[in-house]
Amino acid sequence: MITLQEENPLISRIVAGERHLYAELVDKYKSYAYTIALKILTNRPEAEEAAQDAFIKAFHYLKNFKGESKFSTWLYRIVFNTAISYKRKNRYQFQSLENSIIEYPVGADTQAEKDDKAVFIAKALEKLNAADKLAIQLFYIKEFSLEEVADMMGQQENTIKVRIHRARQRLADELKKILKEEALTL
Amino acid sequence: MERITEQQEHRLLHYLDGQLGTEEVQMLEEELRTQTALRTRLEELRLVHQVLKGKARLEQPSKKFTELVMQNLDHLPQPGLLSPKNGLLLMCGMLVAVGALSFLLGSGVFDNMSGVVNLEQLPVNKNFIKNPLPAFAINGKWVINGIMVLGMGLAFVVLDRTVLKPFFERRSGMGF
User: What ipTM is given for this predicted complex?
Assistant: First the structure.
């Protein structure tokens, strides 16, 4: 896998005509790009297509990349915008069951309780506005820093911080509400 | 039950993220020992934190991903038909057309454009038509006025779709 230091010389060689080297960049960043697209589109085939389109666009605009920011930041922004365009085009697509799989955390609760709470939080996530939901999902993926999430979404770092705090507070409130309702129905 | 301030909530979140200094942690832990509501809230937020952390992971695309990208490198995806720049140009074009029509209308070019459309004269089979068909008087000025109103309406739709809507969506934090 190429390192960050190797990236800029590699990009110069790609721009100079060694296009086959672009595969190394695609390999390095494909899972990041795909994850961003999937968080926005919530549909695997569509996310794959959007991420591929984003890489193709990035290749064509690579000569405009001046190396002032990290390549990853520049690429994530292209992926983000491409996925948003896809989302606008297919606004009414439903979420496939495949995407509803939830991974559960390690904690003190029993498996059944954990399952329930994870499902409740997934439900509560759906009630957040799209930007808050995306910010919090990307923030929790360890690989993306707060700064990267902010750059990607074209917003100030503080705005993203506020979004994430607000989203977590709302999720906790929703979870409390849902658990209370559940307890009442027992 | 005691109320939790917004500031306390933020400190709880920073605590979970490990962003508090040693002194701040000690202070908060002291408060947690004495305030039940704060403790309960921490547990609620901790649960959300743990679930989200557990859910978060990098997704893997298909194995052919890189190969497909490399195969299609020459097929640059087409951008939307109407970029904000094109939208503005189209809107300006429409406004110029409406302005020109308005000028012609004012100078009386369409004053003599009027006539009658008689449906009776249409070459259709009359066997199935019992009642006589009506005739309509058409005034050229009214037609041009209609076209101008339509043009103005279209110009504003173009402005809304290509400039205003994307602009306000971006301002409101992308609201997709």
Answer: 0.76
